[in-house]
TrEMBL record, chain A:
Domain FAD-binding PCMH-type: 1-220
Name of the protein: Xanthine dehydrogenase family protein subunit M
Keywords for the protein's UniProt record, in alphabetical order: FAD, Flavoprotein
Xref: SMART domains: CO_deh_flav_C
Gene3D superfamilies assigned to the protein according to its UniProt record, in alphabetical order: 3.30.465.10, CO dehydrogenase flavoprotein, C-terminal domain, Uridine Diphospho-n-acetylenolpyruvylglucosamine Reductase, domain 2
Record organism: Terrimonas ginsenosidimutans
Origin superkingdom: Bacteria
SUPFAM superfamilies from the UniProt entry: CO dehydrogenase flavoprotein C-terminal domain-like, FAD-binding/transporter-associated domain-like
InterPro entries attached to this UniProt entry: CO_DH_flav_C, CO_DH_flav_C_dom_sf, Diverse_Substr_Oxidored, FAD-bd_PCMH, FAD-bd_PCMH-like_sf, FAD-bd_PCMH_sub1, FAD-bd_PCMH_sub2, Mopterin_DH_FAD-bd
Pfam families referenced in this protein's UniProt entry, alphabetically: CO_deh_flav_C, FAD_binding_5
UniProtKB/TrEMBL annotation, chain B:
Pfam families the UniProt entry points to: Ald_Xan_dh_C, MoCoBD_1, MoCoBD_2
Protein name stated in the entry: Xanthine dehydrogenase family protein molybdopterin-binding subunit
Keyword Acyltransferase carried by entry: no
PANTHER family with a match to the protein in the record: ALDEHYDE OXIDASE 1-RELATED (PTHR11908:SF132), XANTHINE DEHYDROGENASE (PTHR11908)
Keywords of the record: Molybdenum, Oxidoreductase
Superkingdom, natural source: Bacteria
Aldehyde oxidase/xanthine dehydrogenase a/b hammerhead domain residues: 25-137
Source organism of this protein record: Terrimonas ginsenosidimutans
Length: 325, 740
């Protein structure tokens, strides 16, 4: 990797002021170090923020606050999360491997880069890695690519499982900006679509640091499920994944949440299908119709058309699993 | 970390794997782990185009990096003598003229080698080498190219194709498999150390130190005796270590250039392009049977990819000539040159590909005939004679494998009709398939060094790539000599030890067991010779009537009166007793045909909405002669079967024909099976001795655990769903989209 200097800020203020163009934050390093070894990310300086950020999970008036530096495995095993927001735990446990989850931070999980093979191979075109070089996947291998929200600039998908659950649960990303004041970004606005600048994955301001993730209290802890379909049973990224959550009154759906991974440049919410399910009976026939609505929103690429029927199946199964969860 | 810095020696040889202690404590060294004084590090730069020529290479920026010692390219590297002319290179058996040409044959081909004081310096500097190319049209699309390559007869035709053209049942289908890579845990690595101009030491990851020694001898024009190769611990191979790859001559050239020891370890991405793979294949099988299911004939055609610079043939159709009686048989094959790295033997090479087509086609035929696929196979097995040579099988208990496996998985409980058994949204199915591998044996040597305390070290140049060869050798020595396990040490993987062939093709144990038995006899006779100086009756002793123990030698004719080792050593004033012996195949190879066989049974569940395939049970019953060490043998079969699960359901090294290359180069994107994909593999053995093959009666088990596994799984998927999947890997999308 390119030589770099390592700095250890001791306060959030120091971390934020040290974050210049050529510097990057280092928390768990499970993605960044790989990218550095492959010369995809070449920072001059690394700011080790491990002693700066919170490792606490706290109950708040409105829900829960998860410190940025909580490790993925700690969050997955946390009693509060398991009882109030089990969907988060289910999703985390479908991601990566135990070793990686032990290292990876919660905030870092939000910032992981795509696993598109063209992004990872520096000798192939990729607009996300090198603006203006073209999209290698578009006319190449699209198995892992998007079916919604993509454009010819970039067909890569967001790789996280955790984020799909956070998206479904309307989490908020808490950040400290240049002025070191705490603000927040709604989860749906945190990650972005490729647009004309696919090299940017999200709307985190340049100098800002994520300090926490907040999830508002919700009634989805009883009937929720996370289904991940992939090419092997563990340690593989999603072909498609579904975070599903239902608030039920008897057999009637009061509120539904549906989000997917492996389909878009950002965690993707299926708002139309959620709207359809609201007030309906929780049964297979309605789940099938929701899946149909979702299928109509998709625009698969040449070579990944299979994701549409697979997604439909996954939506149905994930919703059914909500009833037996 | 102090633990890893201390030197660890067990108080006594532990039970289980002889190498286990050393691997677990880290004291056993893999190739890249040897610490050598003054060593420097090399990182190679691969071509970014698949076909064409290097026009220019700029190494200035790389050389400017502090710590960089030199950058080798085709312009400034030391000459490898054999690359001076093509005939010599061909004789050397090394087809890629690495850094000796400006031609590019595949993407990833080494075009420069950066040598630096540290790995980090070398790695960073390697990213700064820039190359400009003249690009030619690359051929990487196997599906497109294979249609243009004519097919030719391979092996002798039996009977005629006309004889069964009106057979009551004929099935003809094409089967395809994508590229798969070995990627053993330990990356290929070489540390090269020159001693003057003509002596060389290599610490290298491979499956045969003598093969490396011979190849490098021919390439560099140095006598083999001047080349020492150390591969004492090998972290897996699956066949990728059977060839000498570019990392070896590159490290040697670099060490020459900077006149220092040089370490070159491939990166994981480079493991995907530089050390072989199982090539993509197309097969067509036409199979015919009479109304009762007696096989009448087969046509088996196969094509597979190879590289443009190195023609490699898999022998895919061989399996169809061995397992069943086909009175009429024709096998044809072709290789398809592509601008990809060179493919090579990968676990169960050829046969594992061929068995997928053969055993799928038989399965399809069984449903046409409405005959139990198990019975159809049993009725047509060739367990008496090898149908190809007509020679009697020395032993072949494949029928017993089938019967035993069927009991284990409770085959008779299965509904004979496909797509009938459901559990919620899961469809349940059973499949069966057979595998076979020729049981080879080569010549090898071994030696024993005995110490005064009666402990011995058995040693040979052969490597143990994780198969348990060393442990098997210990068992054989114990059985032959009577000396207890904890007094038998094993030394392997060093070219200074008695010569042995590479460990591959399931021949390792079969080969070395003869040498171990022979050297055990030699030790007995040597000891009897010394004993006869004290008791003349030992003069007539034969190895079979001599028994050793931990304390001494005994002989039946001498009333089993024991003469202690201590007495022999002190009387003759000996420090050690050393013997060496060789053993190899003989005329039994003229009389008999030899094989290992396996029957695979699989129970799967397939999700109707997501296409997900889950393997509930996988049974593998193996006939491989006498089982020298059941734990190690079962471990081999189990690992091979898990490899078979990956091959069937998920493994694919994707080729991008637009960019002319393999796509993806990491283990997150290449989906070999993980524990969660496999049930506990249920392994059993027939365990009947093959009296002719070698002194131990044991045959190799490394390959048969994967040969047939894919078809058993695919057949089970058909039985579950009524969907016939003929293109591996059978990923969930294919299951979902297939028509029943």
């Amino acid at each position: 990797m390119r030589p770099f200097t390592l700095q250890k800020p001791t306060t959030i203020g120091q971390a934020v002021s040290g974050k210049k163009e050529s510097a990057q934050f280092l928390a768990g390093g499970t993605n960044l170090l790989d990218l550095m070894k492959k010369h995809i990310s070449q920072p001059d300086r690394l700011l080790d923020i491990n002693s700066v950020l919170s490792e606490k999970i706290e109950s708040t008036a409105g829900g829960i606050r998860i410190g940025a530096n909580v490790r993925n495995s700690a969050a997955a095993a946390n009693e509060l999360i398991l009882s109030k927001f089990p969907l988060v735990s289910h999703a985390i446990l479908k991601g990566a491997s135990p070793q990686i989850r032990n290292m990876a931070s919660m905030a870092g999980n939000l910032l992981q880069r795509t696993r598109c093979p063209y992004f990872y191979d520096t000798s192939l075109p990729c607009n996300k890695r090198k603006a203006g070089s073209g999209c290698g996947a578009l006319k190449g291998e699209t198995r892992m690519a998007a079916i919604v929200g993509h454009n010819p600039q970039c067909v890569a998908v967001h790789p996280s499982d955790l984020c799909i659950a956070l998206s479904a649960l309307d989490a908020r990303v808490i950040i400290n900006g240049k002025d070191n004041k705490e603000t927040s970004i709604p989860f749906k606005d945190f990650h972005k679509l490729p647009g004309t600048n696919p090299e940017k994955d999200n709307n985190l301001p340049a100098n800002a640091i994520i300090t926490a993730i907040e999830i508002p209290s919700n009634p989805f802890n009883k009937n929720c499920s996370y289904l991940k379909l992939r090419d092997r049973e563990s340690y593989a990224f999603a072909l498609v994944s579904v975070a599903a959550a239902l608030q039920l009154n008897g057999n009637r759906i009061v509120e539904a949440r549906l989000a997917s991974g492996g389909v878009a440049h950002k965690p993707w919410r299926w708002y139309e299908a959620e709207k359809f399910l609201k007030g309906k009976t929780a049964d297979l026939s309605n789940f099938k119709q929701a899946a149909e609505i979702i299928a109509r929103e998709t625009h698969p690429l040449n070579g990944n058309e299979f994701k549409v029927p697979m997604l439909k199946g996954a939506i149905e199964v994930a919703l059914q699993n909500c009833l037996t969860a | 970390m102090g633990f890893f810095k201390r030197k660890h020696e067990p108080k006594k040889v532990p039970e289980g794997r002889v190498e286990g202690f050393y691997k677990v404590t880290g004291s056993g060294k893999y190739a890249a782990e040897y610490k050598l004084e003054n060593v420097c590090y090399a990182v190679l730069v691969g071509s970014t185009i698949a076909a064409g020529e290097i026009v220019d290479i700029n190494t200035d920026n790389a050389k400017d990096i502090e710590g960089v010692l030199d950058v080798l390219t085709h312009r400034n590297r030391p000459q490898i003598p054999a690359f001076a002319d093509e005939a010599k290179a061909k004789r050397a058996g090394f087809s890629l003229p690495v850094l000796h040409t400006n031609k590019i044959f595949f993407r990833g081909q080494p075009v420069a080698l950066v040598i630096a004081e540290t790995l980090e310096d070398a790695n960073y500097a390697a990213s700064l080498v820039t190359v400009s190319y003249k690009t030619d049209q690359a051929k990487v699309d196997f599906d497109k190219e294979h249609a243009t390559v004519p097919i030719a007869a391979t092996g002798k035709e039996r009977g005629s194709m006309d004889a069964w053209s009106n057979a009551p049942h004929i099935r003809e289908q094409a089967y395809t498999i994508r590229n798969q890579v070995h990627n053993p845990m330990e990356m290929h690595a070489t540390i090269a150390v020159w001693d003057g101009d003509k002596k060389l030491k290599l610490y290298d990851k491979n499956q045969g130190v003598n093969n490396v020694q011979q190849t490098i001898s021919r390439l560099f024009d140095i006598p083999p005796a001047n080349i020492e190769v150390f591969s004492e611990y090998v972290g897996g191979g699956f066949g990728s270590g059977l060839k000498v790859w570019s990392n070896v001559p590159l490290a040697i050239m670099a060490a020459k250039q900077v006149n220092r020891p040089v370490k070159l370890m491939l990166t994981r991405p480079q493991m995907f392009t530089l050390v072989g793979y199982r090539p993509q294949s197309w097969q067509n099988v036409r199979i015919g049977a009479d109304a009762n299911g007696k096989f009448l004939g087969i046509l088996h055609q196969a094509k597979h990819g190879t590289s443009v610079f190195d023609n490699y043939g898999e022998g895919i159709t061989r399996i169809s000539r061995l397992v069943y009686n086909f009175g009429n048989l024709k096998t044809e094959s072709a290789t398809v040159p592509l601008n990809l790295g060179a493919p090579t033997w990968m676990r169960g090479p050829g046969d594992c590909t061929g068995a997928f087509a053969l055993e799928s086609a038989i399965d399809e035929l069984s449903y046409d005939i409405k005959k139990d696929p198990l019975q159809l196979r049993l009725d047509n097995l060739a367990v008496i004679n090898d149908p190809d040579t007509g020679k009697p099988w020395s032993t072949n208990f494949l029928n017993e494998c089938m019967t035993k496996g069927a009991e284990m998985i409770n085959w008779k409980s299965r509904n004979p009709l496909p797509a009938q058994t459901k559990e919620g949204e899961w469809m349940i199915g059973y499949g069966v398939a057979n595998g076979m591998w020729f049981a080879g044996r080569s010549k090898a040597s071994a030696s024993i060094i005995m110490q005064k305390d009666g402990s011995i070290t058995v040693q040979t140049a052969m490597t143990d790539i994780g198969t348990g060869t060393g442990t098997g050798m210990q068992n054989i020595a114990h059985l032959e000599l009577g000396i207890s396990h904890d007094k038998i040490r094993i030394k392997l993987g060093n070219s200074n030890l008695p010569a042995a062939p590479s460990q591959g093709g399931s021949t390792g144990l079969s080969t070395i067991s003869g040498a171990v038995a022979a050297v055990c006899d030699a030790l007995k006779m040597k000891l009897a010779g010394y004993a006869s100086l004290q008791d003349a009756i030992y003069k007539d002793a034969k190895p079979e009537s001599i028994v050793l123990s931990d304390s001494g030698i005994a002989y039946q004719q001498a009333g089993n009166h024991l003469i202690s080792f201590d007495k022999i050593f002190s009387k003759e004033n000996l420090q050690t007793i050393e013997v060496e012996a060789s053993s190899g195949p003989g005329e039994e190879r003229q009389k008999y045909a030899f094989c290992s066989g396996a029957s695979h049974f699989c129970k799967v569940r397939v999700h109707t909405k997501t296409g997900k395939v889950k393997i509930d049970r996988h049974v593998c019953v193996v006939d491989a002669g006498y089982v020298v060490n059941k734990l190690a043998a079962a471990n081999q079969v189990s690992g091979a079967a898990v490899g078979g699960i990956g091959m069937t359901l998920s493994e694919e090294q994707v080729v991008d024909s637009t960019h002319g290359c393999f796509i993806g180069g990491d283990l997150a994107g290449y989906h070999f099976a993980v524990n969660a994909d496999a049930p506990i593999i249920e392994v059993d053995f027939i365990n009947k001795i093959d009296p002719n093959i070698n002194p131990s009666g044991a045959k190799g088990v490394g390959e048969v655990g994967i040969i047939g596994a894919a078809a058993a799984i695919a057949n089970a998927i058909f039985h579950a769903t009524g969907k016939r999947l003929r293109d591996l890997p059978i990923t969930p999308d294919k299951v979902l989209l297939a028509k029943s």
